[in-house]
From TrEMBL:
Statement: the UniProt record of this protein carries the keyword Chaperone: no
Protein name: MBL fold metallo-hydrolase
Organism encoding this protein: candidate division CSSED10-310 bacterium
Entry EC number(s): 3.-.-.-
Molecular function GO terms recorded: hydrolase activity
SUPFAM superfamilies: Metallo-hydrolase/oxidoreductase (SSF56281)
Cross-referenced InterPro entries: Metallo-B-lactamas (IPR001279), NDM-1-like (IPR050855), RibonucZ/Hydroxyglut_hydro (IPR036866)
Entries under Pfam families matching the protein: Lactamase_B
Length: 211
C-alpha cells in the first residue's frame, strides 16, 4: 500500500503497488492532493519508477481517479479501466464521479486501455493480474486478483459500497458482485478504505458482512 487515508491524504482511497519483477503496476490513483507523499512511499519500496507501466483504475469515483493526471506526468504509464468507467471519466461527470462532494474539479480524462465484458488479463512481468467486472457500487467497477506462491490476493476496492442513487449504484448488481468475489476464495483482501484482511476466513467474514 503506497497511499490511502492513513498514509497520504484523508481524501485518498487506498493505492496499491504490485511488483512483477520486470514490470510493476499501480491500482488506483487517489485524489492527487498528496501526490508527493505517494511518490515518496513508492520510492521507499525500492521499485524503480521506470518499471511502473500501468495503472489499473477500479472505478471512476474521484477518491480513486483524480490523481491520474499526476501519475501520467511523472511515470508515463498507461491507464486501464472498464469501458463503462471510461465513458464516465471521458465526460467529466461531477455527479457520477462524486467530485462535487470533495470540492474537486475533475477534468475530462481519456483512458488508454479499456475492456468490456467480465474478465481482462494483464501480464506484469512474471505476474498475471485478472481484472473482473464487479458492478454495483458504480456502473464500471472492477476488482483485481493475482495468485502468487499459492496465495490468492484480491484487490476489491469499495466492497463496502456505499450504494447511492446519485452515484448510479445498483444494489442487485452489487450483491451479485460480492457473491462472485466470495467464490474466488481469496487469502488476502486489499480493500479501498478498510485496509488489508487475512487469512481467508477474515476475507470471507468481511465480504459476507455486506450481503
Amino acid at each position: 500500500m503506497v497511499g490511502g487515508p492513513d498514509l497520504s491524504a484523508s481524501s485518498d482511497a487506498s493505492i496499491y503497488l504490485v511488483d512483477g519483477s520486470e514490470r510493476a503496476v499501480l491500482i488506483d490513483a487517489g485524489t492527487g492532493t498528496a501526490f508527493d507523499k505517494v511518490r515518496q512511499l513508492i520510492k521507499k519500496t525500492n521499485v524503480s519508477p521506470a518499471k511502473i507501466s500501468h495503472l489499473i483504475l477500479t472505478h471512476c469515483h474521484v477518491d480513486h481517479s483524480a490523481g491520474i493526471p499526476q501519475f501520467r506526468k511523472w511515470f508515463g504509464l498507461r491507464i486501464i479501466a472498464h469501458q463503462r468507467c471510461a465513458d464516465i471519466l471521458e465526460k467529466g461527470n461531477d455527479r457520477r464521479t462524486g467530485a462535487a462532494w470533495y470540492g474537486i474539479q475533475l477534468p475530462a480524462m481519456n483512458i488508454d486501455e479499456t475492456f468490456q465484458g467480465d474478465d481482462y488479463r494483464i501480464s506484469v512481468g512474471d505476474t498475471e493480474l485478472v481484472c473482473i467486472y464487479t458492478p454495483g457500487h458504480s456502473p464500471g467497477s472492477i476488482s483485481v486478483f493475482l495468485d502468487r506462491d499459492g496465495v490468492r490476493i484480491l484487490f476489491g476496492q469499495d466492497i463496502h459500497g456505499p450504494i447511492l442513487t446519485e452515484l448510479d449504484s445498483n444494489e442487485k448488481l452489487w450483491q451479485a458482485s460480492l457473491k462472485r468475489l466470495l467464490s474466488l476464495e481469496a487469502d488476502i483482501l486489499c480493500e479501498g478504505h478498510y485496509g488489508i484482511f487475512q487469512p481467508r476466513s477474515e476475507v470471507t467474514r468481511f465480504i459476507e458482512s455486506f450481503l
